[in-house]
Amino acid sequence: MKSTFQLTDEQISELIRFEPVLQTPEFIDWYKKELKTSDEFTKLLDDKKFRYNIDLTLDDFYILSHKIVGLFGSTQLRIKGKRSTFESNNLKTFNESLRELYYGEQPISTRFDNFLGNKKVRIVTASAFLMLPNHTEYPYVASFMYDVIDYLGIDSTQNDEALKQAQKEFGISQNFSSEISEEYFKLLVILREIKNSLKLDSYFLIQNLLWDIYSQLDIINPNPTAEGTGEDTSEDDKGLPFGTESTLRDFLAASPNLIEKDMKVIQTEYPTTVGPIDILCTDKNNKFVVIEVKRTKDSDKAVGKILRYMGAIKEEKKEDPRGILIMYEEDSRINYALKVLNNVKLKYYKVNFSLSDAPNN
Q1: Which residues are 347's β-sheet partners?
Q2: Fewest CB within 10 angstroms: 18, 53, 162, 185, which?
Q3: How far apart are CA 271 and CA 147, in angstroms?
Q4: CA 193 from chain center: how many Å?
Q5: Residues 6+ apart with CB under 8 A from 135
């Protein structure tokens, strides 16, 4: 089926500019590790005769999950304990839904949707399970990819084209598919076009390439107020006490009262039609609050994102949310934007860290 979604020549050229990183020793070794882990993952399923209705044990799932986390890092996947993904579900039901995801005869969108019906399984975890034994066909998706998509300039028109393609190709409709499933297959269309444009075989390579671009975004797109001014843009100016935004996001989600008293978390990386919300909460009045976390200076992108997400929540929940933007340091430009917004609040985070010769008690 010919795709209605197309990358522009400029977008392809920008991707090609970064492609040589995949031939560096570091990335070659990492890709070999990914392929090896995929083979081990598949072998375990084969050895256990999972396809032939032999269920995996809890220990089997622990092994599979450690392989997933080892490759993808934070996947929202809790491995052990009362709040773990597996122990929160009926083990037989989880086995059946995973077996259906891999080997079922229904359309993949339906199988993906069904797997998302498990407790504590969201788009990141579901896509990791789907990709690992199928890395040439299905991608893993994570929040950092949205920043790269924004950087490439994939606009609303292209996003609409990708969504239409996903709906047509994978049989997605609002009557039968969740918004999370719809979002995943829209992203699949975009990532597949990147893979095909670069003539790459595996979505592991796409993931690695996009991660490299993401890790360089501060260098590629520096703070405009610092350009040509002699202002220091060293690491001290980039709010690095939390190495990644996902680390900061997860920390705040675990302690929502730090954001606001009586705040309750609904979900991290809450999926919407315009991308995942860092943290979706409700306040003491049971009103929706959209939390956007920015580790670095980039006020235009931050304001645009939070307004986009608030609009998506307004459409979905049929009520006006408010927003809280959490940053590390002041960016004077953002104050001008917030002068005309009475439903977005700005907060700054600080980190206290100390070392001691005495053990913690």
Answers
A1: 326
A2: 53
A3: 15
A4: 19
A5: 34, 35, 38, 202, 203, 204
Measured distance CA(335)–CA(195) in Å, rounded: 40
State whether 132 and 197 are in the same domain.
Answer: yes
Res 72: pLDDT: 81
Block mean pLDDT (10 aa), the chain, length 361: 83 96 95 96 96 95 88 67 82 96 94 92 90 96 86 87 91 70 92 97 96 78 39 34 63 89 90 84 95 70 85 91 86 76 86 66 52
Residue 168, domain member (yes or no): yes
Cβ contact 146:127 at 8 Å: no
Cα–chain center distance at 83: 21
Domain check: are 189 and 239 in the same one? no
Give me the residue label for tokens 């890092």: 73
pLDDT, residue 354, reads: 61
Place of tokens 């300039």: 153
330: left (phi > 0), else alpha (psi -120 to 50), else beta? beta
